Structures are given as structure tokens and as C-alpha cells.
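pinning this so it doesn't scroll away 📌
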Amino acid sequence: RFHVAYKLDEAILEGLAQGMPDELATYSIEAFVSGPEQQNAIAAQIVALGGVVQSTTPGAFQMNVILTPGQLLEVVKMDELHFIDPRGEWEVDMDIVRQISGTNYLESVTGYTGQGVRAEVADSGCQVNHQEFQGVNGPPLVHSPPINAGSHGTAVYGVCFAEGIVAQARGILPGADQGICTEASYLRGVGNIANRYKHTGELVDPKGPFRAVFQTNSTGDPRTRNYTSISAAMDNNLFNFDIVH
């Protein structure tokens, strides 16, 4: 057992010191032990206090919850709870990558265009019938139906897999075996629609339809230089499922 101050992100500590408003806010909680037992105990306490549990991750550590400052200060006292971060709004991030990543040079030297690669783009939608995505292996496999035709997700999928019908649009892996797409908001897990841990396990299942070697997305929680409970949840996915992100 250690002092509750060590369980709270610096932004939360600063807010409490300055008298943050008595309003609901969204937080990410990390339990000490992986699995449902500690998460269920934390969830029960939150519900008893009148808070909201948005999602849990039965195979891992991380939870999404909504609490007032008073509820937060009660929950953080629990022995089962390891750390709490503020949870911000989802963001989009993207840039042109083929030239600056060295992909053009690598292809010119080796001729490699992605043969044998199966991978997933998790982003804000994907236009699955786009002309650049109808290569020899067909259109994208959809891992989270329904998926909208969002422009940002379509661009990110194109960065990875566009065939090059329009030369300037050619992706990093135009010859990949199969592209997969997922609606990024689906992975946020709010309302237990899905959880990223289970989703990642499905991606690498050797008997499943996806059999991916990496997942990429240009969306996510607000950018930070800190190692947060969301960072830890992602590392847990990568180590347990041996997938690149």
C-alpha cells in the first residue's frame, strides 16, 4: 500500500490543489492485477458511489470511468487501484510518409512492396470501395462493422495500402496480402462495445480471418510525453499478442 498521491496523474493533483469544479470527468484507471477480479471490485465501488463505469478490460488492467472529484478521492483509496489518468477526447494525427520513411528507397533496392503482410488500420472510418483499395486481394476486411467512409481513416488506409492507380497516392505496402480496417471509436471501448485487448487477440488468431502482423492508427487519446495507464494498456496488448503497432 502506498499514499494515494502516488496513484494520481500530475494533472489531477494540480487540479485538486486548485479546487477543480465539482463536475463529472472521464478517467482511465489501471488495476494492480490483470483480469476481472480487481476491475469488478473497483467497478462495484464506483457504482456504489454514484459514478459511471464506461468499460472494463477483462483480459487486462484498464478501465474507463466517469467520476466527480469527491468520488475520485474515494475510489483512489482502494488497494486494487494502481493509477488514475484523465481521459481526454479522441484526436486525429497524420502526415505524408512514403518519402520521409524511406519506402521509395527500400522498394528501389529490394523490390519489396509488402508481399505476405496482413495488417489493420484502426482509424476514423474507411471508404472500403475506394478505387485504390481493390487490389489483387480485394477490398479491405472490416473488423468492426459498421464502418463509415471517413476521410481521415480513408487517407490513413491509403498511406498503408493504396495500390497506386493514382501514382501520387501509392501506399507504403501496395502489394500487401490483405488490408483490414476498423472504426477507431470502436476500440475506445466506451459502453463495453468492444475492448482493444480482445480485439487485438482476434487480429493475431492463426485460425481467424485476419492473421495480422501489425496494427496502426493515427487517432488516439490526447498527445502527451507522459507514460500513462493507456500507454501501459497498449504495451500489455503488444507483449501478450506479439503484434507490432
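📌 and the second one:
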Amino acid sequence: MELLEELKSKWQSDCKDKKAAVEMWDTISEQYKNYEMPDEGNILLKIIEKENMIDSNSKVLDIGCGVGQYSASLSQKVSEVTGVDLSPKMIEYGKQNLEKMGIKNVNLFCCDWSEYDISKNEFENKFDLVLAVMTPAIGDSSTFEKMIKSSKKHGIMFKHSRRTDEISNDIMKMMNVDTKVLSRDENVLYAFGMLWLMGYQPKIEYNDQQWNIKRNYDEACEIYVNRARTFTTLTQEKEEKIRQFLESKNQNGFIHDTIRTTIAVIYW
């Protein structure tokens, strides 16, 4: 247990400004609001099927659900799905999409998972499967432990590792912020280690991905400024420096970015 406690103490959140994080994800929600349902070739759905994690009576928790595409997809196969997210806009769009699709067994609500009381809200050992798919909601040992405790059977977490985000990396360097905050590779080790030391037998898979992002200049400014503010204090001068940098990358009113990452999928 001493080793487990030592590991927990090392896994800490890098987030310094929750308000900036909310504003960033609210802005990003615009690009996700009209989503396509994941098909059977999706990594998450393939693992769930391969490991027989759910059936028609299952209850699922989707942490950092965003606009709820996985919640909506799984709703067809289980009894009920609960989705939580920090961004009010993500939840708003998610609810609108559920209504359009006529899905009744999904409940989405806005909350800060780091402050959510799973005991008071009777989440402990409630769900057959708990998901956390590429979400900063699981950013330290406390939030991960709550994820584990909310499940009575299975869990799946997707985490970025070895990520390069060209625009954000340059901005973080300009702000004297360690670019590792964008992809804490050690968090994958912490998660696996916690599960192992708690008596689980976690499995892990990897998936290399590249995303080409195109955003209009104003939207990009809002996103990148708030992303930087999430990790460090920004003066007006520093904020203007970010905007000037983005202006130098402006191509006919748009900012283009390329993200390369290895997604680590840990499940138990």
C-alpha cells in the first residue's frame, strides 16, 4: 500500500484555471456538435464487444462525455447511460442531439468530475462500465480513483501519449510552459500502476493517430489563449503575443494545425 500511496501522490493535475478550460471546451464544442455515430470498427466499441463488458441490463458512465456520441451509441445496447462533462455547451449540444434521435435512456449533465462527490451522489459501484475517452477530466490520481470506484465491473480509459501539437507546442514554449502538459506520458504509467496495485489486471493497447485541424482565426485565438491560460497565468501582453503568433500562421482567415499522438487504451 505504501507504493500505491507514493504513486498517487506523484500523479497531480496540471490545470491551473478551470474557468479557462471551460471556455476553451465551450468553443471547441462547435466543431463536435454535429457528430457521426461511431461504427462497429471503432476501437472503443471493438474492445467492449471483445471483452463482453455490457449487455442489455448494463449501466454505463461516460466521464468527459463531450457532446455524447459514445453515450448515444452505447444507449442502443444497454439499459441506461449517464454522461458528465465540464463544458455546459458540450452538454447542451449533446442533449439536443439525443432529442433529435429520440434517445430516452441517456442522462447528460454538467459537472466538474474533480469535485463531484461519488459517495453523496451514489455513484460508487453503480456502473457496469465506466468510460473516460481522451478527456482531461481524468487528470490526477483522485479523479482516476473515483472512476475506478464508480465501476462494479469494467473500465476503459483513453489517454494521449507522445503527442505533438504543432501550434500549441510553439505557444507553450513562448509562455515558458513545459510542453509535456499537453500529453503527460507518465499518466499512462500511473493509471496502469494504480490498477495493478489495487488488485486489477489491466490490459493496454496503442493506436497511432494524426488529425489535421482547421479553425477560423477568431475561434483559434479563443481556443489557444484559453488553453495556455489553463496551465499558466497570462498577462495582457502575453495574450497579445499569442494572437500575434497566430496571425503569423493565418492562411486566408484560417489556422491549420497538425496533431500526432499515440493513444494508450487502458481497460480492465
